[in-house]
């Protein structure tokens, strides 16, 4: 990528955009002095990274975040966007019962994007990666009309079988680990033009997936698992379809946090809708043949029948969650 340079008299302070520092200048800034975990055998700086895979298998997933679709920089700080992008992928690894091992990042953005914003994105990516015990091992930067962040996560099954969406069996319980409804509530607050309460708005900005719960569920014998990215009902529908079973969710088991109840009252909405159909919290929901492990809450059951998701024994009226390409 061609780069431009500030004049000697302007000094480094004038190098405020990606066009000023260039692709490789940015890469040097966001990778310098970063600490990698032992699983990273060769980090950024070569044609490819080298990541240990002692299990002999690699779990891999990719998510794309597009400015104006998944995030707005007038609603979220750059580091929050970086954390959200990393979390979405790390949660997918956990949902397979795996332990994350590395992140790869692809970034496209306009050349006049402030370097400070890109450094903030990188800071968030590294921070969330570190919270899961992994490093950012490589990636690419390209020009584009808007900020697009593509993150690929790698993971290890550590000798276990992968927990897929296809294993739920009649008689299993459905259990949840992590919070749901908070990110959707925060998004509603932002759409109404408010920036508080902070705990709710920040739930939209930065999810808090229970990464360790994925391997925990696998060790406890989970028969299927998925992360709640598009909405509890929408994501459980993927499990029902893949497993060929009926899933029934009990609303009595879904406790509405007092803070969400307060926000829902102020906005004039039913908070249960956030819990059932709100996405972006990246909680984990799994099926177990017996009791759910500690930290998991049983919210329903699995039975033989058509591959559908019921709510309190009846079909749910209205949307089940987010669909990028659904018509309004």
Question: What would you note in describing this structure?
Answer:
With 328 residues, the protein is an alpha+beta fold. It has two domains: 15-156, 60s Ribosomal Protein L30, Chain: A (2-Layer Sandwich), CATH 3.30.1330.10; 173-315, Phosphoribosyl-aminoimidazole Synthetase, Chain A, domain 2 (Alpha-Beta Complex), CATH 3.90.650. Helix content is 31%, strand content 23%. A seven-stranded mixed β-sheet has the order 8-10-7-11-9-12-13. A four-stranded mixed β-sheet has the order 3-6-4-5.
β content, as a range?
Answer: 15-25%
CATH architecture descriptor text of the largest domain: Alpha-Beta Complex
- The helix tally amounts to 9
Uncertain stretches of 5 or more adjacent residues: 1-14
Strands of the widest sheet, in order across it, are 8-10-7-11-9-12-13
The tally of strands reads 13
Which sheet architecture does the biggest sheet show? Answer: 7 strands, mixed
Share of residues in helices? 25-40%
Structural class: alpha+beta
Write the element-wise H/E pattern from the N-terminal end onward. HEEEHEHEEEHHHEHEHHEEEE
* Radius of gyration from CA coordinates: 21 Å
Task: List its salient traits.
328 residues, seven-stranded mixed sheet, Phosphoribosyl-aminoimidazole Synthetase, Chain A, domain 2, single chain, 9 helices, 60s Ribosomal Protein L30, Chain: A, alpha+beta
């Amino acid at each position: 990528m061609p780069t431009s340079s500030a004049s000697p008299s302007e000094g480094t302070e004038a190098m405020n955009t990606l066009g000023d520092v260039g692709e490789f200048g940015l890469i040097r800034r966001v990778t310098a002095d970063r600490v990698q975990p032992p699983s990273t055998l060769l980090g950024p700086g070569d044609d490819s990274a080298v990541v240990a895979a002692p299990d002999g298998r690699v779990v891999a997933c990719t998510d794309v975040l597009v400015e104006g679709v998944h995030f707005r920089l007038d609603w979220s700080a750059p580091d929050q966007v970086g954390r959200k992008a990393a979390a979405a992928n790390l949660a997918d690894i956990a949902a397979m019962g795996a332990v994350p091992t590395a992140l790869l990042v692809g970034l496209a953005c306009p050349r006049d994007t402030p370097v400070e914003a890109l450094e903030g994105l990188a800071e968030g990516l590294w921070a969330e990666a570190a919270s899961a015990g992994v490093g950012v091992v490589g990636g690419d930067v390209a020009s584009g009309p808007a900020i697009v962040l593509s993150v690929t996560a790698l993971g290890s099954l550590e000798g276990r079988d992968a927990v897929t969406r296809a294993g739920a069996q009649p008689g299993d319980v459905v259990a949840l680990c992590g919070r749901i409804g908070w990110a959707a509530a925060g998004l509603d607050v932002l759409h109404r033009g408010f920036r508080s309460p902070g705990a709710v708005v920040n739930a939209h900005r930065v999810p808090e997936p229970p990464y360790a719960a994925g391997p925990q569920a696998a060790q406890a014998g989970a028969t299927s698992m998925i992360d709640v990215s598009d909405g509890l009902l929408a994501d459980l529908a993927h499990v029902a379809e893949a497993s060929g079973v009926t899933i029934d969710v009990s609303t009595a088991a879904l406790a509405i946090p007092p803070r969400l109840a307060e926000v829902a009252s102020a906005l004039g909405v039913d908070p249960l809708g956030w819990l059932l159909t709100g996405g972006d919290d990246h909680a984990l929901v799994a099926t177990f043949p017996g009791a759910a492990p500690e930290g998991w809450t049983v919210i329903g059951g699995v039975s033989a029948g058509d591959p559908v998701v019921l709510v309190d024994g009846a079909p749910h009226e209205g949307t089940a969650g987010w669909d990028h390409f659904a018509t309004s």
